[in-house]
């Protein structure tokens, strides 16, 4: 099999993995809405039988439905942005937005390992990159970091401009740099001109994107 076909299949696997995760999240949203709707139906039947209807219980069920609709809307927006990441090979990207999307798409995977994944302090930075490959790279680096972490740990992701390029940092408060093995995404990082290293000053793992035209 040619390298190009292997790369295409790896990309499809990643797209499928994220799509499956998003569909599970949406299914969970529907399950909570269905449960709240069932409660409202129960309250209605109780009222029809002459039992007193407590407004606060109706309000709680309605709030639950509204909250899940907002959650579902955010999930679909993230999935829509991810789907459109395949529209162009390379374009100018707001890297804070790109990191935020990658964090959102990986949160369920973190939850399954009882790890909290969140955004840290970021500085505005943009540069030309492939949006799909960047999301895949960040998702893969988060997953590799999870392998060195324990339930209850927190992984904080941030991005900042560095030497005309940008640096994504991954850190676990109170612990060593989390990326001990970049093998799962080393080929992709190399193809994107990304260096993976440890910042000795901050103790964070960093993914450094060189400025356009600069050596990695």
List the helices and strands and how they pair.
Elements: H1 3-48, H2 55-84, E1 91-94, H3 95-112, E2 116-119, E3 126-129, H4 131-146, E4 154-162, E5 165-171, H5 186-191, E6 194-199, E7 204-209
Parallel strand pairs: 2-4
Antiparallel strand pairs: 1-3, 4-5, 5-7, 6-7
Question: What do you see in this structure?
Answer:
By secondary structure, the chain is an alpha+beta fold. Helices cover 54% and strands 19% of the residues. The chain contains five helices and seven strands; from the N terminus they run ααβαββαββαββ. A five-stranded mixed sheet has the order 2-4-5-7-6. Strand 6 and strand 7 (204-209) form a beta hairpin. Helix 1 (3-48) runs antiparallel to helix 2 (55-84), helix 1 (3-48) packs across helix 3 and helix 3 runs parallel beside helix 4. The protein is elongated. The model has no long low-confidence stretch (mean pLDDT 92).
Succession of helices and strands = HHEHEEHEEHEE
* Global shape: elongated
- Oligomerization category of the chains in this entry: single chain
Task: Please mark out the parts with pLDDT under 50 across 5 or more consecutive residues, or reply none.
Answer: none
Number of strands: 7
The helicity comes to 40-55%
List the strand order in the largest sheet.
2-4-5-7-6
Distance between the termini: 29 Å
Number of helices: 5
Largest sheet: 5 strands, mixed
Radius of gyration, taken over Cα atoms and rounded to an integer in Å: 21 Å
Give the overall pLDDT as a whole number: 92
Structural class: alpha+beta
